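Much of our argument rests on the idea that a fold can be written as discrete symbols. Part of our work consisted of pairing the sequence of a single chain with a tokenised description of its backbone. The amino acid sequence and the backbone structure tokens for this protein are reproduced below.
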Amino acid sequence: MSPNTCWLCKIFRAEENGISSKVSLEEVLQWSQSFEKLITSKYGPMIYKIYLKTEHSDENIDFWLACEAYKKIMSQRKRISVARKLFTSYIQSQAPNEINIDSPVRKAIIRNIQEPTQSCFDEAQRIIYMHMERDSYPRFLESEFYQKLKHSLQTNDNNSMVN
């Protein structure tokens, strides 16, 4: 099976799970306006993650979303627990989902992990956001994956207007 077929399977699986039947053409078209619109929309992060899996970089969106959830934690005990999970999953050297951040940022997180604050992952999250915005987001918009999703929704929209 070619890599092109693989993403098609994922769209169809997503369709079976009701994702692409729930996402609107309007939402999908807004994604091309800015990375911010994609990542803050209802279904954008989910669809973008499916695409990032084809590039083997879905750890970026996972980390970014995990940081968004982390910032909302109010309990210090839970914050410590989640901070350690984020560290072992994404930050430490050879982590299973290691993200691409520079050494000073990694070292700052290591220093702060004992007493983690709400903002201790902010710089790493900002770097990952920039990686996605500059690198994978433009490729996503040009990808057959995004173009076919948009086209299928435009076709569905046109069909529903006719019926």
